[in-house]
Design a protein that fits this description.
There is one protein chain. The chain is α/β, with parallel strands linked by helices. The strands form four sheets. It has a seven-stranded mixed β-sheet, sandwiched between helices. A three-stranded antiparallel β-sheet has the order 11-12-14, with helices on one face. The radius of gyration is 21 Å and the shape is globular. Bound molecules: pyridoxal-5'-phosphate.
């Protein structure tokens, strides 16, 4: 079999090996059915058990309160950028507050502007999106339709440590790139969504955790596929859901629960992994320059630069020879980015750290 390398891609990203192995073992026929997961009816008993278990796993891992729905939708995180304002901004006569922390929050605000009025409650642009705001920095409109934030800016590599209190104004969170990386208090949010392909499964499914009063507020004059009420009433089976992607979310969350032992454990491991790379940056005498301010550093996406573009090219080339792939930063910001989601093994991070230390020794002046 082809050897697996350490894939530091920001997404789609590495999946836990036990989940891939189980999918491989059962690919031709799911136990007890004689039918592949790729062929099975989404109305079958076997698939009902899978989607129910995926939801139950998420409810256990995140201690999701009973008055929240867990939806498995299509269209990626980007469809949520549109669905949130379609359901909760359009026609309200209010504006929505966006906390513009980086590329993804900015994109979400632009998408929302197609549906109604938006305003930036804070914008990190002047600081080159190196840091998350403190709660006191936000200029919130008490009449806003909702407040929107992105918990982890995948491209800049910055992450919230704690979330602002928005009182009665619903708080909406794009958690695409740090979903399930640590415990989170779901009750703080009206809606928390995440596309799966960073931390929860393959591309094709987006997990939306939404409070029941929001579902009931969804307007009637929307097409079914973009209406949260229709999606919730249909229990994510209004039309054919992404069957295989939901199955993989079940396997990944099985792994988180049964092998890792829950999100506190996962967070400890993630912090250890991130610390290894940030130490390599901080101990390099400026050879590696981290993008994020230390207090806003992401434990999922580590962004840094080398002294010049030629050295960066050399870095990518040599890294590849060590089985370390996909370390290029996003095309909009350049530099390097190591995405170290839940499924990146510690050995992968150790190998990268050792390589970084050695590369610095050989190339620093
Ligand atoms: C990857 C990512 C997205 C985009 O997800 P798609 O599923 O491609 O639409 C949005 N927000 C964040 C924070 C991301 O990391």
């Amino acid at each position: 079999m082809e050897k697996r390398i350490f894939n530091f891609s920001p997404g789609p990203a590495m999946l836990p090996l036990p989940a891939l192995e189980q999918a491989q073992r059962d690919l031709l026929a799911l136990p007890g059915t004689g039918i592949s997961i790729l062929e099975i009816s989404h109305r079958s008993k076997a698939f009902a058990a899978i989607i129910e278990q995926a939801e139950a796993n998420l409810r256990t891992l995140l201690a999701i309160p009973d008055d929240y729905h867990v939806l498995f939708l299509q269209g990626g995180a980007l469809l949520q950028f549109g669905m949130v304002p379609m359901n909760f901004l359009r026609g309200t006569g209010r504006s929505a507050d966006y906390v513009v922390t980086g590329s993804w929050a900015k994109k979400a605000m632009e998408e929302a502007a197609t549906q109604g009025q938006v305003r930036a409650a804070w914008d990190g642009k002047a600081g080159n999106y190196k840091q998350m705001p403190d709660a006191g920095d936000l200029q919130l409109d008490r009449n806003a339709a909702y407040v929107y934030l992105c918990s982890n800016e995948t491209i800049q590599g910055i992450q919230f440590r704690s979330y602002p209190d928005t009182g009665d104004v619903p708080l909406v969170c794009d958690a695409s790139s740090d979903f399930l990386c640590r415990p989170v208090s779901v009750g703080r949010f009206a809606i928390l969504f995440a596309c799966a392909q960073k931390n929860a499964g393959p591309a094709g499914v987006t997990i939306v955790i939404i409070r029941d009063d929001m579902v009931r507020r969804a307007p009637k004059d929307l097409p079914s596929m973009v209406n949260y009420r229709v999606m919730a009433e249909g229990k994510s089976l209004f039309n054919t859901p992404p069957v295989f992607a939901v199955y993989m979310v079940k396997l990944v969350t099985d792994w988180l629960l049964n092998t890792v032992g829950g999100l506190e454990k996962m967070e400890q491991i993630n912090r250890r992994k991130a610390q290894m790379l940030y130490e390599a940056i901080d101990d390099s005498n400026g050879f590696y320059a981290g993008h994020a301010d230390p207090f806003s550093r992401s434990i999922m996406n580590v962004t840094f630069r080398l002294p010049n573009a030629a050295l960066e090219e050399q870095f990518f080339k040599e890294a590849k020879e060590h089985g370390l792939a996909e370390l290029k930063g996003h095309r909009s910001v350049g530099g390097c980015r190591a995405s170290i989601y839940n499924a990146m093994p510690i050995e992968g991070v150790q190998t990268l750290r050792d390589f970084m230390v050695d590369f610095c020794k050989r190339n620093a002046k």
